[in-house]
What we know:
It is a single chain. The chain is mostly helical. It has four helices and no strands. The chain is elongated and about 115 Å long.
Amino acid sequence: MVDFRQFFRKIQDFLQDNAKKTIIFCALLIFMLFSAIIALVAGSAKAKNSAKKPPEEKKLVLDQPLMIPPSPSIPDGYITTRKTEKKWPEKEIEKWFTLPDENEVEKLGDSNDRIINDIIGAAP
């Protein structure tokens, strides 16, 4: 079993033999402790103060009219947005929709068959 009395006696003898070094070492430890405490307190106080302050806001004062940045011009008659209706009016149906004839439907079917054959290839 460890004899603590002998251990403490050795420490006591060392401290008595080196009293000057012991005092300097203790003073240095105390100084470092106080420095650390001051640094922690100052750091936490700065963090609290900066967190409480809202960011600085600048009020915009217009002394000249706003300038629109250069951009490509939109041609006349071009509609960027429009309200879509659920059903096409007859006028638009006549203008935009044409019924395909039999020949066009057959051509479309043949081109689709060719595309399918190209994709499938020689697969069984």
